[in-house]
Amino acid sequence: MKKKILITGGAGFIGSNVADAYLAEGYDVVVVDDLSSGSLENLDSRVKFYQLNICSPILDEIFSLEKPDIVNHHAAQISVPYSIENPINDAEINIKGFLNILQCSVKHGVKKVILISSGGAIYGEAEEYPATENCPLKPLSIYAIHKLTSEYYVRFYHYQYNLNYTILRYANVYGPRQVAQSEAGVVSIFIEKLLRNQAPMLYAYPEEPEGMIRDYVYVKDVVRANVAALDRGNNNVFNIGTGHEITTSFLYKTIAWQLGSDIKPILGPARKGDLHRSLLDCSKAFKELGWSPLYTLNEGIRETIEFFKNKELFK
After folding, report:
1. Could you read off the pLDDT of 217-244 as tens digits, one per residue?
2. Tell me: the pLDDT tens digits for 238-292?
3. Out of 27, 50, 143, 165, which one is annotated catalytic?
4. Whether residue 148 sits in one domain with residue 278
5. 153 has catalytic annotation
6. Is 74 found in the same domain as 62?
7. For the domain that residue 254 is a member of, what is the CATH number?
8. How far apart are CA 68 and CA 182, in angstroms?
9. Domain range holding 206?
């Protein structure tokens, strides 16, 4: 009998790509998503879909009916500035919603929860560079605080109820299906603006005109980490990134060069919660999950550009 995986946020950018990979591996896939940022267009017809907010008490009925073996938790409020301006709303989704999932998981016999956390935010202005999983955790935004809180919760549920988990701390993920409306989607924002012959905003601190340093990891590599976590890495935490530092300016130049555009970006001030730099050491994932990134920035950007060019909007 095929194992069943329930993916929260599975109609979204990363979750839907993970859903495709799980289907390809032969799993039955159930998706719970409120479609606040996800889209039905992202879902394979073989996916069983429930449109629902993860805070809803109806979630218990879905778990009772579907009886998933594994839960992959991608549903989240992902905007750092929004979390700072709306901390209660952020907690409603990122803490209360996750607790609802954990309660349902214990009640209905889920074997494992894969929790998606944020290596891009949870370390703050990291003391180690690149940051390992043992780097002191210094969240500098409400979003990061709530991600860290979720990590503590899932550890408690393992201790109290023997619920297995794997925590994946993502770097900055980009690729096909990314939504340009979120500030987390800088790659898709740059691509969409340039395809419309418009100048995008490039945020930077005055003393760092090239922009912030980030670790950009392609979604297909992230998907492979989610597949590896199905039967490896129990009750442990892993950084998922590239270990390559990229400034916002270099990212923009890479995209503009591939599009053949000479449009200059508009320089803007750093926003609330913007870290100066973030870079992940992912050697632990290689040793224990057998995972490492395969895509270079150029390769990932090329595939992402092709995806956006093929969207009806740009045909």
Report:
1. 999 999 999 999 999 999 999 999 999 9
2. 999 999 999 999 999 999 999 999 999 999 999 877 889 999 999 999 999 999 9
3. 143
4. no
5. no
6. yes
7. 3.90.25.10
8. 30
9. 174-214+244-314
